């Protein structure tokens, strides 16, 4: 059965190997994005955190979660991702605080790559929660409004809202007062555009995954 014609209230069981794979992919993409975000990349003159190469994947997976398993299950996964990130940051912080071995000369590099400024850490978590919950909520409401049809409108529409809020919250709270207003607006638009384009390009893959998961047994 095509995902576009399903009952908008129908959801699949979340106790399946497929769900576990999706859950692992969601949390892994978040953890990797936070680790590599320390590097700034320059693509055709657009400067962005390196996390942008994988963080949008969490939105794509989030769309699949909400579409197939329902908003309640997606919300639980979002909270789980938040606490897994918090655990990872706690472990990294403790590792940095512990005294290094006398013969090990990598402490400075370790802190340089894995360290987080408290303000950036806080805003990253805030932006994540705002963006992910909004994305899941908008997709769930659009699914009801469209009666389960036109999946592409839900995946792209929810991402435009979720990624827009995520980018705005992160850039404004993290850099307000440190760079000019024009720079803030440009940075928000660049991140929003790149992340939304990521979702748009991945729409055919989202269709394939959603249709497959709906077709397999619970």
TrEMBL record:
It is found in: Cell inner membrane. The keyword rRNA processing does not apply. The keyword Transmembrane helix applies. The chain crosses the membrane at residues 18-37, 43-65, 77-99, 119-140, 168-190, 196-214. It is a multi-pass membrane protein. GO terms for molecular function: transmembrane transporter activity. Pfam families: Vut_1. Keywords: Cell inner membrane, Cell membrane, Membrane, Transmembrane, Transmembrane helix, Transport. One of its GO terms (cellular component) is plasma membrane. It comes from the Bacteria. Its main location: membrane. Involved in the import of queuosine (Q) precursors, required for Q precursor salvage. Belongs to the vitamin uptake transporter (VUT/ECF) (TC 2.A.88) family. Q precursor transporter subfamily. PANTHER family: QUEUOSINE PRECURSOR TRANSPORTER-RELATED. This is Probable queuosine precursor transporter.
């Amino acid at each position: 059965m095509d995902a576009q014609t399903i009952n908008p209230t129908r959801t699949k069981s979340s106790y399946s190997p497929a769900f576990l794979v999706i859950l692992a992919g969601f949390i892994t993409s978040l953890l990797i994005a936070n680790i590599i975000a320390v590097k700034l990349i320059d693509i055709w003159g657009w400067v962005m955190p390196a996390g942008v190469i994988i963080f949008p994947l969490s939105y794509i997976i989030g769309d699949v979660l909400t579409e197939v398993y329902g908003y309640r299950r997606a919300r639980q996964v979002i909270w789980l991702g938040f606490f897994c990130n918090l655990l990872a940051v706690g472990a990294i912080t403790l590792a940095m605080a512990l005294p290094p071995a006398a013969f090990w000369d990598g402490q400075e590099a370790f802190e340089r790559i894995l360290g987080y400024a408290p303000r950036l850490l806080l805003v990253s978590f805030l932006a994540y929660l705002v963006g992910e919950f909004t994305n899941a909520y908008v997709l769930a409401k659009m699914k009801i409004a469209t009666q389960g049809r036109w999946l592409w409108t839900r995946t792209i529409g929810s991402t435009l809202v979720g990624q827009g809020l995520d980018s705005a919250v992160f850039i404004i709270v993290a850099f307000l007062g440190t760079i000019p207003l024009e720079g803030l607006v440009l940075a928000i638009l660049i991140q929003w555009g790149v992340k939304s384009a990521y979702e748009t390009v991945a729409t055919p893959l989202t269709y394939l995954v959603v249709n497959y998961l709906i077709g397999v047994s619970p």
